[in-house]
Design a protein that fits this description.
Blueprint lengths: L1 E6 L3 H10 L8 E7 L4 E2 L4 H6 L8 E2 L7 E5 L2 E5 L4 E4 L5 E2 L2 E4 L3 E3 L7 H4 L6 H12 L6 E5 L3 H13 L4 E5 L11 H13 L3 E3 L4 E5 L2 E4 L2 E4 L2 E4 L3 E3 L1 H4 L18 E2 L2 E6 L12 H20 L14 E6 L3 E6 L2 E4 L1 H18 L1
Parallel strand pairs: 1-2, 1-9, 2-5, 9-20, 11-12, 11-17, 12-13
Antiparallel strand pairs: 3-4, 6-7, 7-8, 10-18, 14-15, 15-16, 19-20, 21-22, 22-23
Helix pairs in contact: 1-8
GO molecular function: NAD(P)H dehydrogenase (quinone) activity
Family: Belongs to the NADH dehydrogenase family.
Protein name: NADH dehydrogenase
């Protein structure tokens, strides 16, 4: 029996399971999924968990069950390519015949002094829980600094404003306007929402230092009771330590079939893969679709296509609290209740059909 090992129960590997099970998995192949937790977590909703507007249970989806699917719960500490095994803390190594690495990402602090020590995170479910505990226990009038006005920072700031209207919230944005790579209409809409709801947006920010009760933008110090960092990501440290070729962002370079050059048995999906798009759940799922097709052909001994189709993303949807939202879909900007309704619908479809 061949053993397909999936590292990480994120969006990419969940899509792998959805496509392989129950009917496409060859009779001579078993699957082992390795993850720290016994459930899939909806990372796109961690901002709401941290803000306290959804419960922990609402951001979890049960893993599927199948006779030839087993789970190993633990922390991956090393990927041993030479011996074709995965090293797991306090457990026996897991051997593989084929491996899909989907270990996700971690915060990137850009060498800012104090950022790693004195900021909170929403990059994992356990860190999001810790962030929620910190924010929910702050007294009225506390000052919150959110560093990074990408999708995560925007959604966290807006959700936190609805959850805790008593807090003084500042959102530090490195660009000249929010979401500078998107149409200006979206930027103005989001900025106006923040102005109307009392969230201060500081553009052209450059955070140079973080202290226990202060954050420095350029050389100006701002008193703060808590800082949440949403200003950049990098691949999981296990992937960064792998002796393979990587790009400038430490993401693994791959062949067009999504495997390591020189090793057709090791694939990388999601945030750890070097791809011509910014990392996202949608990208991981589309990439997984192609990996499944490649694996099925290789298992059957069939030739691979000369090229794979270009991955095309459907767009971006974001929320501004529970009633408003924004998006860029089919080269068209959308705002307001429609955008929020679309995002809620996508999430519902995922949880109850794809999850």
């Amino acid at each position: 029996m061949k053993n397909l090992v999936l590292l990480g129960g994120g969006y990419g590997n969940m899509r792998m399971l959805l496509r392989l099970l129950p009917n496409q998995l060859p009779e001579d192949v078993t699957i082992t999924l390795v993850d720290k937790f016994p459930y899939h977590s909806l990372k796109t909703e961690y901002y709401a968990l941290a803000a306290g507007t959804v419960s922990d249970h609402e951001v979890r989806v049960s893993f599927p069950e199948h006779p030839r699917l087993k789970y190993v719960y633990g922390e991956v500490t090393e990927i041993d390519l030479d011996n074709k095994q995965v090293v797991i803390k306090d457990r026996e190594p897991v051997p593989y015949d084929d491996l899909v690495i989907g270990l996700g990402c971690e915060d990137k602090y850009h060498n800012v002094p104090g950022a790693a020590e004195y900021t909170h995170s929403i990059q994992s479910i356990d860190k999001s829980r810790e962030t929620y505990r910190t924010l929910s226990n702050l007294p009225a009038g506390s000052k919150i600094s959110i560093v990074g006005a990408g999708l995560s920072g925007i959604e966290l700031a807006s959700e936190l404003r609805e959850s805790r209207p008593d807090l003084d919230i500042k959102l530090f944005d490195r660009g000249p306007r929010i979401l500078k790579d998107f149409p200006e209409r979206l930027s103005k809409y989001i900025h106006k929402w923040f102005v109307d709801h009392g969230v201060e947006v500081i553009n052209n920010a450059n955070i140079t230092k973080v202290e226990p009760n202060a954050i420095y933008n350029h050389e100006d110090a701002y008193d703060t009771d808590a800082v949440v960092w949403t200003a950049g990501i990098q691949p999981n440290h296990v992937v960064r330590s792998m002796p393979v070729e990587k790009d400038r962002s430490d993401r693994v370079k791959l062949t067009q079939y999504h495997n390591l050059p020189g090793d057709e048995h090791v694939y990388v999906v999601g945030d750890c893969a070097s791809l011509p798009h910014a990392p996202s759940a949608q990208l991981a799922e589309e990439q997984a679709e192609q990996i499944v097709q490649v694996l099925l052909k290789r298992w059957k001994g069939e030739p691979l296509p000369k090229t794979l189709p270009e991955i095309k993303l459907k767009g971006v949807l974001g929320s501004l609290g529970k009633k408003q939202g924004f998006g860029f879909v089919a080269d068209r900007a959308i705002t307001g209740r429609v955008a929020r309704f679309l995002k809620s619908g996508v999430l519902w479809m995922y949880k109850f059909h794809n999850g």
